[in-house]
Design brief:
- There is one protein chain.
- By secondary structure, the chain is of the alpha/beta class.
- It folds into 4 domains: 87 residues, Glutaredoxin (3-Layer(aba) Sandwich); 210 residues, Rossmann fold (3-Layer(aba) Sandwich), CATH 3.40.50.11540; 88 residues, Ubiquitin-like (UB roll) (Roll); 90 residues, de novo design (two linked rop proteins) (Up-down Bundle).
- The chain contains 21 helices and 16 strands.
- The strands form 4 sheets. A 5-stranded mixed β-sheet has the order 2-1-3-4-5, covered by helices on one side.
- A hairpin with a 2-residue loop joins strand 3 and strand 4.
- Helix 7 crosses helix 10 and helix 9 packs across helix 10.
- The longest helix is centred in the C-terminal third of the chain and has 18 residues.
- The radius of gyration is 23 Å and the shape is globular.
- The termini are far apart.
Length: 509
């Protein structure tokens, strides 16, 4: 008898560990497997039991529910008020298109046998049999683009590193994930760490790298612990080390814990931090692909990007690029947060609309009040009004609508939100998190807070709105990196889409 209780941080925060302990103390003939979360966070802790019909889910389960579940014979799929039916048939999950997250919540995160039984290592074994050029051509042909926000084609970046001449090359996975409303990287590392390790190993073989680093934010202790255990297991299995799965390729992988700075999510600041320096943005050129970590050619990709590579290599470029629209191919892992009824992970092919995600999967606001605004792409992403909810969630459509997809985080606000206050938050956030290297970001954000305060107070409103827009233009054009360059996006979108909040009238809401 197998009973699955998530060990994901989100599930643990609402009592999953206590539920697992209670079940173990009362159901003695069961094996408790601590899987990752399926991503339906409003149902956590979601307990699953393996039956002859398939896995049956119950949730959200609390310690107080255990006795009644046992009385209902839940271990064999018995009827109960918390019963959700067959997990795979829960509509919220069944209608998704999970590629990157296909194993998350299904397998034991630290079992290589379980990983292989669900398609793991197929991509790596194929990569070992191919040339560097063949691997890179497959990734390029798939249309895989950077999921960290930039959307740069992964294959082109890999090709640049592969072509660089150096005695040492590196693979770096950026798991800093500091954007508000984002948690896909954490959930994947906690629920299926071997997928990331496999993707990084394939990248290493493709470009000729022998060392890799995963830069994980310090606020993710469970992810750090799980990933380290997975690395140790992979090493013992012969996957990592001097001979990857018995091949001539060598690859070592290490974790570096972030120093708590948002700007370290920027790739060059991350490199500085890995090297033990203060997280400050580097000027480009040179590009990290040519002079990156310790001055050597370096592939830097987001966790979700690298974790999509095993599927590309296992199923082929054609299968991956069959999903999506235009130049936005494959799937995106959307993260629903904020004032949302059904928050969590939704993986769909590019091209799904904002409305389908927010009102379909998200089921509207938790408060029950109408949705007024959403922010897509983290604290530096644009604010969208209801009139824009038919916008397709892909790179090009989002850009045309004045926003960006970013890492796929979506934060929902109901009618109580004050967009002037949100615009102020963007500038104050930038002022707090700026590395301080360039003047437009360091000083511009401070002046931005002051100017928005004057608008809110009703002081020379039109004059200060014009000044604010001028300031935004300087920050966009003059900042060294996206920290200052993108801060104007939430400010300008709030002013454009919610002008009534920038009239200086205290009673506007």
């Amino acid at each position: 008898m197998k009973i699955y209780v998530p060990s994901d941080s989100a599930a643990i925060s609402v009592g999953a560990n206590e539920v697992a302990e209670a079940i173990a103390s009362k159901v003695h003939d069961a094996t408790i497997i601590r899987n990752g979360s399926r991503g339906a966070l409003w149902l956590e802790p979601m307990v699953e039991v393996e039956t002859s019909k398939g896995r049956i889910a119950y949730g959200p389960v609390s310690v107080e529910d255990i006795d009644s579940l046992i009385a209902a014979d839940f271990a064999h799929g018995g009827a109960h008020q918390l019963a959700l039916g067959l997990t795979d048939e829960i509509e919220w999950l069944a209608t998704q298109d999970r590629v990157t997250f296909k194993r998350v919540g299904i397998i034991d995160p630290l079992s290589i046998a379980d990983y292989e039984a669900h398609g793991g290592l197929v991509g790596l074994r194929r990569a070992i049999s191919l040339t560097s050029h063949a691997i890179i051509d497959e990734v390029t042909e798939s249309g895989l683009r950077g999921r960290g926000g930039a959307g740069f084609p992964a294959g082109i970046k890999w090709k640049t590193v592969a072509g660089a001449v150096s005695d040492q090359k590196y693979i770096c996975a950026n798991a800093d994930e500091g954007d508000s409303g984002t948690f896909a990287d954490r959930m994947l590392i906690e629920g299926d760490p071997f997928t990331l390790i496999e993707g990084m190993t394939i990248a290493a073989i493709a470009v000729g790298a022998t060392e890799g680093y995963v830069y994980v934010r310090s606020e993710y202790p469970y992810a750090i612990s799980t990933l380290q255990k997975a690395i140790d297991i992979a090493h013992a299995f012969g996957w990592l080390g001097s001979s990857v799965l018995g091949s001539s390729h060598a690859f070592e992988l290490k974790i570096r814990v972030g120093a708590g700075s948002y700007v370290c999510g920027e790739e060059t600041a991350m490199l500085e931090s890995i090297e033990g320096k203060r997280g400050v943005v580097r000027a480009k050129p040179p590009l990290p692909a040519l002079e990156g970590l310790f001055g050597k050619p370096t592939v830097i990709n987001n966790v979700s990007t690298l974790s999509s590579v095993p599927a590309v290599m296992a199923d082929g470029a054609a299968a991956y690029k069959a999903r999506g629209v235009g130049r936005s191919l494959g799937t995106q892992v959307f993260q629903l947060a904020g004032n949302i009824k059904r928050g969590g992970i939704v993986e769909k092919a590019f091209g799904v609309t904002i409305d389908e995600i927010i009102n379909g999967y998200g089921a509207g606001t938790l408060s029950g009040n109408p949705v007024r605004a959403i922010q897509i792409g983290g604290p530096l992403g644009a604010y969208f009004s209801k009139s824009q909810f038919d916008t397709s969630l892909d790179y090009e459509s989002m850009l045309a609508a004045g926003g960006m997809l970013g890492h796929g985080g979506i934060v929902v606000f109901d009618e109580s939100v004050d967009l002037a206050a949100q615009a102020r938050f963007a500038m104050s956030f930038c002022a707090l998190e700026s590395c301080g290297k360039c003047t437009p970001c360091r000083i511009g954000s401070t002046r931005g807070v002051e100017t928005i305060d004057l608008i809110i107070q009703g002081v020379k409103v039109e004059e200060n709105k014009k000044l604010l827009l001028d300031l935004c233009e300087v920050m966009t054009d003059g900042s060294l990196c996206a920290m200052g360059g993108l801060t104007p996006m939430p400010v300008k979108s709030a002013m454009l889409n919610f002008p009534e909040d920038f009239t200086g009238e205290v009673s506007r809401r």
